[in-house]
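Hi support team,

I submitted a single chain yesterday and got back a structure, but I'm not sure I'm reading the token output correctly. Could someone confirm the output below corresponds to the sequence I sent? I've pasted both exactly as they appear in my results page.

Thanks,
R.
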Amino acid sequence: MSFASAMPSADGVWTDLCLAPEALGEGEQAFRDAAIVVSNGIMVWIGSQRALPILYASMPRHLGRGALVTPGLIDCHTHLVYGGQRANEFAMRLAGASYEEVARAGGGIVSSVRATRAASEEELFAQAMPRLESLLAEGLCALEIKSGYGLNLIYERAQLRVARRLGEHFGVTVRTTFLGAHALPPEYAGRSQAYIDLVCKEMMPALASEGLIDAVDAFCETIGFSLSETEQVFRAAQDLGLPVKLHAEQLSNMGGAALAARYGALSCDHIEHLDAEGISRMRQAGTVAVLLPGAYYFLRDTHLPPVSALREAGVPMAVSTDHNPGTSPALSLLLMMNMACTLFRLTVPEVLAGVTRHAARALRLSDTHGQIGQGRPANFVLWPVDEPAELAYWLGHKPMPTVVRQGRIMQGPG
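Hi R., thanks for writing in. Yes, this is the structure output for that exact sequence:
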């Protein structure tokens, strides 16, 4: 039996709720004396509790005690499954070591690849569990988990299998993304085209046939893969009917966002160096801009993503932890909300949409997550706060929410 299956059902009438305006779809009215009726894990009625139909009068009651209600939060960019950690590199950099010196000492992504390959699936699962539990404690109802630390078929498969298992165990929606084109593995040094051939012709088809891939990503950068190599990955994904996304314009303007938009990318992530053409192409394609303030902060970056231009163009902006062992060991989406506001100048409504509605769009989950609405699965959170701004305001405070995930009460009083 999974942890999730043992949790109580959320079916019944949830009363005395305050629905955050950002929780609802466009044009829907927010209620301060709201009620939500859940039946068979689906929200079947939403409105003022004074207008509750008599049909639901005999259902079990869940008292909200005036809690603020938002959709379940979504972390749309994580590398949650990997072996080991890289705190020693953090200490080395603080002591003055350069990137090259860290790499020569066996650090960098090669360190994570080595640790991931050395771990069994059971060990990877055990290491990932507490990371996921930290995220779930803050109202998470869906997340993406990327591969990319195996860099061959056996170990990429292990990462993706563990990601699927985490979703089943915790009753949380997990979208798996194949990131075989994350870095060049040591055994392919100087042979990037041979490795891209392996990714496109062997790894991706095999993993897709096993049902382990929901989307395909690549790291398009001077220290990653070229535009040409990235496009080969996109074409292979397209041939398999898989949507794409991209680590784009993080360290330089490679033109990756414009390329990704041509392939209808779900999202372009990082985008600190995104230019006007990339923004225009993303707007036309409906591609989500995923902002990752944790990596920006941890790397002590100073080149801000073009938030004002994205806002003016109407490009949806999501916010995520980018949890990974090297550049963003972040395990708090609420902290990322604060960073997105303070570092990137997002407004409170923008950052709430960024971890709900727009994050759902970045994972192709808009039909089931990111909004509260009649006929949608019960994925919502009751927060013991007075106003939405508090979710991005407090630093280090754990507000102890009541989380309804996949129609079950995962935390808090029932």
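A quick pointer for reading it: The chain has 15 helices and 15 strands. Let us know if anything else looks off.

Best,
Support desk
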